[in-house]
TrEMBL record:
<dbReference type="InterPro" id="IPR027417">
    <property type="entry name" value="P-loop_NTPase"/>
</dbReference>
<feature type="domain" description="ABC transporter">
    <location>
        <begin position="5"/>
        <end position="228"/>
    </location>
</feature>
<keyword id="KW-0547">Nucleotide-binding</keyword>
<dbReference type="GO" id="GO:0016887">
    <property type="term" value="F:ATP hydrolysis activity"/>
</dbReference>
<keyword id="KW-0067">ATP-binding</keyword>
<protein>
    <submittedName>
        <fullName>ABC transporter ATP-binding protein</fullName>
    </submittedName>
</protein>
<dbReference type="Pfam" id="PF00005">
    <property type="entry name" value="ABC_tran"/>
</dbReference>
<dbReference type="InterPro" id="IPR003593">
    <property type="entry name" value="AAA+_ATPase"/>
</dbReference>
<dbReference type="InterPro" id="IPR003439">
    <property type="entry name" value="ABC_transporter-like_ATP-bd"/>
</dbReference>
<dbReference type="GO" id="GO:0005524">
    <property type="term" value="F:ATP binding"/>
</dbReference>
Length: 235
């Protein structure tokens, strides 16, 4: 088993609030993981711990075998919930700028993704719809050759047709021989065909981890499985 990301007994507190409670989990190279759970269950915090945007209160995060400690992490490509583009930049300027920031940025892949996701290169950020800004975030995240790709709510604000093309792009442009992808999302139906394994979070605890295959063998959709598992654990 080739582990890309390893969390060992990680607890993350924000002041008195415990967002992640003693979490130990491995993410294997080449797999796609879905991090699922109700609002406030700790999904974004888990991704931020892997990016090094927040540090564990106790425990360890290991990326490709190395304890990240309090170092900044360069080998993780991260799509955040936040919008980080300058209002007056065009799509092509944003792509060029991101290319200048990351040595692992693949400009030709970015250009292919711009076309695939039907973005206008000349369009200016402040004139782009939320959905188009979402697509651009995805372009610049997927264009990196980082071994670890983290996507926080990549489908939010996108209409059903665009969601479909985003899923297609994820399958087409991610190199599953070298990259591991972790997606935090509430869009269970859309990701069902994409992910290999799901982690179900509740109030900072990992309450279940399962392969999508095993969920399907139960005759359940991911949606049904999540509801059933949460109900069962809370009963
Ligand atoms: N910077 C912060 N300061 C204080 N509390 C925080 C901070 N960030 C998150 N929290 C709290 O930690 C808990 C986990 O938050 P987190 O954003 O990780 O959940 P989430 O599962 O991603 O939620 P959502 O589905 O709503 O995006 C929540 O109770 C949240 O209010």
């Amino acid at each position: 088993m080739d582990v890309s990301v390893k969390l060992e007994q990680v607890t993350k507190k924000y002041g008195k609030k415990c967002a992640i409670h003693s979490l130990s989990v491995d993410f294997e190279k080449g797999k796609v993981y879905g991090v699922l759970g109700t609002n406030g269950s700790g999904k974004s915090t888990l991704l931020k711990l892997i990016t090094g945007l927040v540090f564990p209160t106790t425990g360890e995060v290991r990326i490709l075998g190395e304890n990240t400690g309090r170092k900044s992490i360069s080998n993780v490509s991260y799509l955040t919930e936040l919008d980080m583009f300058y209002d007056n930049s065009s799509v092509e300027e944003v792509v060029k700028f991101m290319g200048s920031q990351f040595s692992d940025f693949d400009l030709s892949k970015a250009n292919l993704l711009v076309d695939e996701l039907s973005l206008d290169r000349k369009a200016i950020m402040k004139q782009l719809s939320k959905g188009n800004r979402g697509r651009l975030k995805l372009v610049v995240t997927l264009a990196r050759k980082s071994p670890i790709i983290l996507l926080d709510e990549p489908l939010s604000g996108l209409d059903p047709l665009v969601r479909e093309s985003v899923i297609t792009s994820l399958v087409k442009y991610v190199d599953f021989d070298h990259q591991t992808m972790i997606i935090a999302t509430h869009e269970l139906d859309e990701i069902e065909t994409l992910v290999d394994e799901v982690l179900l979070m509740n109030e900072g605890n990992l309450i279940e981890k399962a392969t999508v295959e095993s969920v399907q063998e139960l005759g359940l959709s991911l949606n049904q499985w999540v509801k059933q598992t949460i109900r069962g654990k809370l009963a």
